[in-house]
Amino acid sequence: MPKDLYDVAIIGCGPGGLQAAIHSASKKAKVIVFGKPRNSSLYKAHIANFCCSEKLISGKEMLEAGRKQAESFDAVFLEEDIIETKNENKLFSLFTESGETFTSRTLILSMGVARKKLRVKGENRLVGRGVSYCVDCDANFYRGLDVAVVGNESAATTGAITLLSYARTVYLICRKLMITDTLYKQLRNSQVKVIQDTWVKEIIGTNDVEEVLLKNGETLKVNGIFVELGAKGALELAANLGAMFDAETISFIETNRKQETNIPGLYAAGDITGQPWQIAKAVGEGCVAGIEATEYAKKLAKS
Q: Which of 26, 122, 160, 278 is close enough to 149 for a disulfide, judged by CB 3.0 to 4.6 Å?
């Protein structure tokens, strides 16, 4: 067994992930939580109509309070993105942007599904025709072609490096890279062409993506552009593990009433399990996921 083996690993530090951490850690499970609070959709929001809270409170305050609660039960928090997941020998391996690897008996995915868009001319019209929001899903369609990735953080950087195995030329468009030193060294030693201090102004193409116009006036002739803003999304990480998605939209992870997925030991809670996108739902599902994952981990430890 790995030296530092956790009972429950949680990706996502929003309300669902925090509630899962509180319930797991309070039951004496060894818990680690990954994610950056500022990436939570709740961080800049204000909360009303939430049970037992009469006054308007900020999302930042709620997240900070939840973290303190979980830490009071010895849950560990690491403000890093997970860039890859694996499931081998009944254990989950999680690889961080700084190059560290963590292992856990169970894994709870709770980091939302909202796709951040560029909101530029041509983007909506060319979605599925060269505009993509998932490198892991669509990289294979660009073998031998020229592509661009836009984003400042780990998702864009790892996506660009991944695309080198498929595309002929890979551009990374960013205002300013906000990544770890380890990831920066990987990027620097790769063949990715980094274009900094600018952003996408327009995506151009008649039927498919043909060019990307940048705010610095430069034009890139590409066959596709991947919009990867922030951390690697839940769907990409879940797909690597073989999780089942809803049949109708392929947008949400399917779970049962115990928040179990089709993969033993893998749970999901919050927005990634579908609507309604409400804090109350995320907290409730996080509670169930935390309890169930802890019980599963304890049984696995005894086997």
A: 160
Alpha-carbon distance of 171 to 303, in angstroms, equals 49
Nearest-CA neighbor of 272 among 8, 7, 2, 20? 20
Residue at token pair 């991947």: 226
How far apart are alpha carbons 23 and 100 in whole angstroms? 26
Question: Considering only CA atoms, which of 259, 182, 231 is closest in space to residue 20?
Answer: 259
**Please, what's the b/e burial string for 265-289 (b: 16 or more CB within 10 A of its CB; e: otherwise)?**
bbbbbbbbbbeeeebebbbbbbbbb
In this predicted structure, the answer to whether residue 193 has a pLDDT above a threshold of 90 is yes
Which residues is 123 bridged to in the sheet? none
* Predicted TM-score of the model (pTM): 0.83
**For the chain, what's the residue count?**
303
Which residues, including other chains, have CB under 8 Å from residue 247's CB and lie 6 or more apart? none
Q: What domains does the chain contain, in order, with CATH numbers?
A: 5-113+233-302 (3.50.50.60), 131-227 (3.50.50.60)
Structure tokens at 25: 């850690």
Can you name the residues that pair with 23 across neighbouring β-strands?
Answer: none
Helix or strand or coil: residue 34? strand
State the DSSP string of 188-257. Answer: HTSS-EEE-S--EEEEE-SSS--EEEETTS-EEE-SEEEE--SSPPHHHHHHHHT--B-TTTS-SB---T
* Whole-angstrom distance, CA of residue 240 vs CA of residue 217: 38
Identify the DSSP state of 173.
E
Residues near 103 by beta carbon (within 8 Å), at least 6 away in sequence: 2, 4, 5, 6, 91, 92, 93, 94
Q: Tell me how crowded residue 49 is: count the other CB atoms within 10 A of its CB.
A: 9
At 48-91, the pLDDT tens digits run 778 887 777 888 999 999 999 999 999 999 999 999 999 999 99
Q: Which of 98, 58, 92 shows the shortest CA–CA distance to 78?
A: 98
Residue 285: helix, strand or coil by DSSP?
helix
